[in-house]
């Protein structure tokens, strides 16, 4: 079904006529005192034509026929055109929405998206830094699929690099087999740290590690088997976390998968004149095609702009992260033919992505694939410093999830002393994991956020438990209705109270919010939408009795409640968050 926004836009377009290429769009109003939707097209046209915006708005309104859906549009401020949706139109809209399995979310023109996310590193525990990539990437994948796009998820595991020289050496000399059984990644992390320390102070150990790396790179059978085993053990632990968080990948093609193409990638860059030798290494420099400020191969210091080339082959002949990413993108384009590739990593990798996207476009100016680096800030402790354990170590994701479940369990137990422990545990699991995911998805991703147990587990405010509780309370109304033998008259829509109309307007915005989220990769917009929806329901519930109302109000209000519960559940589901039936 069409959204109200889309209906208004389709009526606005002919009234605007030739917009000179400006997009003719309508937005839900931020401040609903003056209307429900608005457009700033008159102001934009006025700017382009150096004309009076209010006069242009007047002309547009004169040609506009929206009587079927909106009260007479009004001009406000510098030239906004405001629309107030008629109650009858809201009722009609709601009647289709409540029977729509997609809850009013339109089917968009499908695109093929590859999403590269999570991507932890072998032999290292997944830490809170990987949390945001995992949750953001998963939410984008779920939203993309719900909208009707074809989504390929790929976990680009860090399974290759110089660290494997040290790891092979340590495996042969200092590994504790029993510890490896118990906690493989913990033991791999321990031996890596120890070996690294030894190599720093002992050049013979350093040489030995290098020799192990060369053997591995040359295909030595023993080292190859050790390396494979380290990947296998790490993957088992990653999979445990993914299963727990209900995260799924279509592919897990680690960095090493692309090794066969690395030499060719470098050769192609050199042949096409994109990369050249510099001090024995092979690098890509600026081609001066963009202003200095935008050039990822330049850096500014007190003496002005200096070259900041991207390395694609080190002086010792080894390739690196950039070479691998170039081989990876070539593979993805060949294999999946995507319209867009989305990379979800922390903000410190921005330069890497700007450089490698630019190199790719120089290599293949003819291939139209949108490349998006979806980056995010850090998680901070309540002291405002990077989030650490009390002893100062990085927080392991598995420990964090354990603590979330335990804390939520205690709250549930306290609230429901009559429920059996296993049920409290299950509800605690849903609330705990949901709270952690939501806290991570809610802030604007490009900022840092402070991790606070009290805040994220609170039943008040913009949190997952608040939204889950809103859902649970609506479900309780339906249980009570069933107990009282109340049946609803399906299809009854009777909207009289302002709070009912406000709730319908919010429900109608679900289908307008989701497509916008994928445009700039911001699941936080969905969090905010769900919070507004829960608040609109709360106001409605305060103002309008549901079960105690007479017909047809009762059936209509039950339909409003049902649509709200389904939208909350679906929306949270798109963020990877479950809802309990009671809590
Ligand atoms: N393994 C990397 C890290 O932990 C992230 C990889 C992101 N994906 C990519 N294609 N570069 O930082």
Please summarize what this structure is.
The chain has helices at 4-16, 41-49, 53-63, 87-98, 128-147, 163-173, 177-182, 184-201, 203-217, 221-245, 262-271, 321-336, 350-363, 397-415, 421-441, 453-456, 464-483, 498-508, 510-519, 524-543, 553-574, and strands at residues 27-28, 37-39, 74-76, 80-83, 112-116, 150-154, 275-278, 281-284, 298-301, 304-307, 310-313, 340-346, 370-376, 379-380, 449-450. By secondary structure, it is α/β, with parallel strands linked by helices.
Commentary on this structure:
The protein is an alpha/beta fold and 583 residues long. The chain has four domains: 4-85, Arginyl tRNA synthetase N-terminal domain (Gyrase A, domain 2); 112-158 and 257-376, HUPs (Rossmann fold, 3-Layer(aba) Sandwich), CATH 3.40.50; 163-253, no CATH class; 397-574, Isoleucyl-tRNA Synthetase, Domain 1 (Orthogonal Bundle). Helix content is 53%, strand content 10%. It contains 21 helices and 15 strands. It has helices at residues 4-16, 41-49, 53-63, 87-98, 128-147, 163-173, 177-182, 184-201, 203-217, 221-245, 262-271, 321-336, 350-363, 397-415, 421-441, 453-456, 464-483, 498-508, 510-519, 524-543, 553-574, and strands at 27-28, 37-39, 74-76, 80-83, 112-116, 150-154, 275-278, 281-284, 298-301, 304-307, 310-313, 340-346, 370-376, 379-380, 449-450. The chain has a four-stranded antiparallel sheet with strand order 1-2-4-3, with helices on one face. Strands 6-5-12-13 form a four-stranded parallel sheet, sandwiched between helices. Strands 7-8-11 form a three-stranded antiparallel sheet. β7 and β8 form a beta hairpin. α2 crosses α3 and α5 crosses α19. The mean pLDDT is 95. Bound molecules: arginine. Residues 116, 119-121, 156, 158, 325, 328, 343, 345 line the site of arginine.
């Amino acid at each position: 079904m069409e959204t109200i926004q889309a209906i208004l836009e389709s009526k606005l377009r002919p009234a605007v006529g030739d917009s000179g290429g400006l997009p003719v769009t309508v937005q839900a109003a931020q401040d609903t005192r003056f209307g429900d939707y608005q457009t700033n097209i008159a102001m934009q046209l006025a700017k382009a034509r150096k004309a009076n915006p209010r006069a242009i708005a007047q002309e547009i309104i004169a040609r506009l026929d929206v009587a079927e859906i909106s009260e007479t549009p009004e001009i406000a401020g510098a030239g906004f055109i405001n629309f107030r949706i008629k109650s009858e139109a809201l009722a009609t809209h709601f009647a289709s929405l409540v029977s729509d399995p997609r809850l009013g979310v339109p089917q968009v023109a499908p695109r093929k998206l590859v999403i590269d996310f999570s991507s932890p590193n072998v032999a290292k525990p997944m830490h809170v830094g990987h949390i945001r990539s995992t949750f953001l990437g998963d939410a984008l994948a779920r939203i993309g699929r719900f909208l009707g796009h074809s989504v390929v998820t790929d976990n680009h595991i860090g399974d290759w690099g110089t660290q494997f020289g040290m790891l092979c050496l340590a495996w042969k000399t200092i590994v504790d087999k029993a510890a490896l059984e118990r906690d493989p990644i913990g033991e791999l992390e321990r031996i890596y740290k120890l070996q690294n320390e030894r190599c720093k102070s002992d050049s013979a150990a350093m040489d030995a590690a290098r020799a192990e790396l060369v053997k591995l790179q040359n295909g030595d059978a023993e080292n190859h088997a050790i390396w494979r085993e380290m990947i296998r053990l790490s993957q088992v632990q990653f999979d445990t976390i993914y299963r727990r968080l209900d995260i799924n990948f279509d592919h897990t093609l680690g960095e090493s998968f692309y090794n066969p193409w690395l030499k060719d990638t470098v050769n192609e860059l050199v042949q096409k004149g994109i990369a050249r030798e510099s001090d024995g290494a092979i690098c890509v420099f600026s081609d001066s095609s963009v202003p200095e400020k935008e050039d990822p191969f330049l850096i500014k210091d007190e003496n002005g702009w200096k070259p900041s080339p991207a390395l694609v082959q080190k002086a010792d002949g080894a390739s690196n992260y950039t070479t691998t990413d170039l081989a990876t993108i070539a593979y993805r384009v060949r294999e999946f033919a995507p319209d867009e590739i989305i990379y979800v990593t922390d903000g410190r990798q921005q330069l890497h992505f700007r450089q490698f996207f630019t190199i790719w476009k120089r290599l293949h100016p003819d291939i139209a694939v949108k490349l998006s680096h979806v980056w995010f800030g850090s998680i901070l402790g309540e002291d405002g410093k990077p989030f650490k354990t009390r002893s100062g170590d990085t927080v392991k994701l598995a420990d964090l999830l354990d603590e979330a479940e335990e804390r939520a369990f205690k709250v549930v137990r306290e609230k429901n002393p009559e429920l059996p422990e296993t049920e409290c545990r299950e509800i605690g699991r849903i609330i705990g994991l949901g709270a952690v995911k939501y806290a991570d998805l809610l802030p604007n991703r490009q900022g840092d956020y402070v991790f606070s147990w009290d805040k994220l587990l609170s039943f008040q405010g913009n949190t997952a438990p608040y939204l889950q509780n809103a859902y649970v309370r609506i479900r309780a109304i339906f249980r009570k209705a069933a107990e009282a033998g109340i049946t609803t008259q399906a299809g009854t829509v009777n909207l009289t109270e302002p709070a009912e109309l406000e709730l319908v307007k919010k429900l109608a915005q679900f289908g307008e919010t989701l497509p916008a989220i994928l445009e700039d990769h911001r699941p936080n917009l969905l969090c905010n939408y769900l919070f507004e929806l829960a608040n609109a329901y709360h106001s409605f519930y305060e103002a309008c009795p549901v079960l105690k109302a007479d017909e047809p109000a009762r059936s209509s209000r039950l339909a409003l409640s049902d649509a709200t519960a389904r939208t909350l559940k679906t929306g949270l589901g798109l963020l990877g968050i479950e809802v309990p039936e009671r809590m």
